[in-house]
Write a structure and sequence with these properties.
The protein is 52% helix and 11% strand. It has a 5-stranded mixed sheet, with helices on both faces.
């Protein structure tokens, strides 16, 4: 029976090591870490993330899945609740580092199952509400800065250049895979995937930064 930490990070101020250190400090003994780096938690469902797919392949009955919080396990209420319920139906127990919540995948008692399922719904709804509130606050802050000085806010500085976008497009048209493109150009596969998903937006982001 393995104890597996799933760590999703999507911003520069988050790291997999930081989430692992938090789990260890909370008393968890971690056997393995499955990670997703550079993946938006609000737009990409768990099963469409490389690490998320690994979780469903790797976890077995009796295993424990550790996450910082339930919002790591999906992009919204429906995704989080569906994934957690699928894991517990597999016999996997889910534990959170924050507040040490436990969703027991081993219980067969109907009352405990009912309480567990109610908690899953409540926690998932709370996580989505918090994420949406944070997103709205960020959008309001961006809009305020733009009103003060339209040129002041350009968004996050891109980690790639126009020449690199040109090369990504060229290699994609040649049928080259995302991993190989990243290796050749010196970008992460997640950055290449973001460029691939919206090439015009990538060019626009570079243009804003001159």
């Amino acid at each position: 029976m393995a104890i597996i930490l799933y760590a999703r990070v999507s911003t520069a101020d988050q790291t997999v090591d930081h989430q692992k250190d938090q789990a260890l400090a909370a008393g968890f003994q971690i056997d393995d870490v499955v990670e997703d780096t550079g993946v938006s938690g609000l737009s990409v469902p768990l099963k469409e993330r490389p690490g998320g797919r690994r979780l469903f392949d790797k976890l077995r009955a009796g295993d424990t899945l550790v996450v910082r919080w339930v919002d790591r396990l999906g992009r919204n209420y429906e995704d989080v609740t569906s994934n957690i319920r699928q894991f517990v139906e597999m016999g996997v127990t889910i534990r959170t580092v924050i507040n040490n919540m436990t969703f027991d995948g081993q219980t067969n008692d109907p009352m405990q199952k009912a309480i567990r399922d109610a908690m899953i719904s409540f926690m998932a709804a709370s996580a989505q509400a918090q994420a949406e509130a944070t997103k709205l606050a960020a959008k309001a802050g961006h809009a305020h800065r733009k009103r003060i000085d339209p040129e002041a806010y350009k968004g996050r500085k891109p980690s790639y250049s126009k020449d690199q976008i040109d090369r990504v497009v060229e290699l994609l048209e040649a049928g080259t895979g995302v991993n190989e493109i990243g290796r050749q150009i010196g970008l992460t596969k997640f950055t290449v995937s973001r460029i691939k998903a919206d090439v015009p937006a990538a060019y626009a982001r570079v243009a804003r930064w001159g």
